[in-house]
Specification:
Length: 234
């Protein structure tokens, strides 16, 4: 299903409803927020999450959320609110179970700046090419998302948070990188960990200054399959 444009708040809520099952706790994290340090909070309420994020969106380099659900006790760190200068954030051991496999396509460029429109488009094209390649290998259709500077494929999974699952995800990412990375587009092989954070789709990607050739862009969901079965991994 190709998605129609939505308001920023609606896009954030749509992202929450995809990633967060009822009762799940996820961390919102905003690293490198200047004098505010790392801004973080834990949420089990999508509406309150959207309101908190809207108040800060566009004033920070990027807003992220844990891909997988956290230990519910972590809600007590900052319950449905954001706090500045957070001293502790979600560790891999705090993740209850792996629910998503992330494949991240990013243009090669200097760090700390936005991608050009051409670089951005190349990343989306590379992700779509990998989607076709993986479909041929028996993978179901993924969620396709625009990170603001690159592109993401998100596959639903149901894996324990253990060393075997970590090695399996590493193996998949290495395989996709070997087949689909190019001289100008990388497949990020560091996103294997269970506590991984991902762009909160709907929020702005604000790396560096927004220039005509390297603009800040709003991240967004591009496609959500009508059926989203879990990828069977062994």
């Amino acid at each position: 299903m190709i998605l129609a444009p939505t308001t920023l708040r609606d896009e954030i809520l749509r992202t929450c409803r995809l990633l967060m099952a009822p009762g799940d706790v996820h961390e919102v994290r905003i690293p490198k927020a200047g004098r505010r340090g790392t801004i973080a909070g834990y949420f089990n309420d999508a509406e309150r999450l959207a309101d908190a994020v809207l108040a800060i969106n566009g004033t920070v380099p990027g807003v992220y959320v844990t891909l997988n659900p956290c230990n519910q006790a972590l809600l007590a760190r900052a319950a449905n609110r954001l706090q500045e200068r957070a001293q502790v954030t979600t560790a891999d051991a705090d993740i209850l179970r792996r629910r998503w496999l992330l494949i991240d396509f990013d243009p090669v460029r200097p760090s700390g700046i936005s991608s050009t429109n051409r670089e951005h488009g190349r990343a989306v094209s590379a992700a779509c090419g990998a989607w076709d390649d993986l479909r041929g290998a028996g993978f179901p259709d993924p969620i396709v998302a625009d990170s603001g500077n690159g592109a993401h494929l998100l596959y639903r999974v149901d894996l324990a948070n253990d060393s075997s699952a970590t090695e399996l995800v590493k193996h998949i990412l290495a395989g996709v990188a070997a087949r689909c990375a190019t001289d100008d587009i990388t497949v990020d092989q560091t996103v294997f960990n269970a506590g991984r954070i991902v762009k909160l789709y709907g929020t702005l990607a604000c790396k560096g200054d927004s220039l005509p050739d390297r603009p800040h862009r709003r991240s967004r969901l591009l496609e959500i399959p009508d059926n989203l079965p879990a990828l069977e991994l062994h």
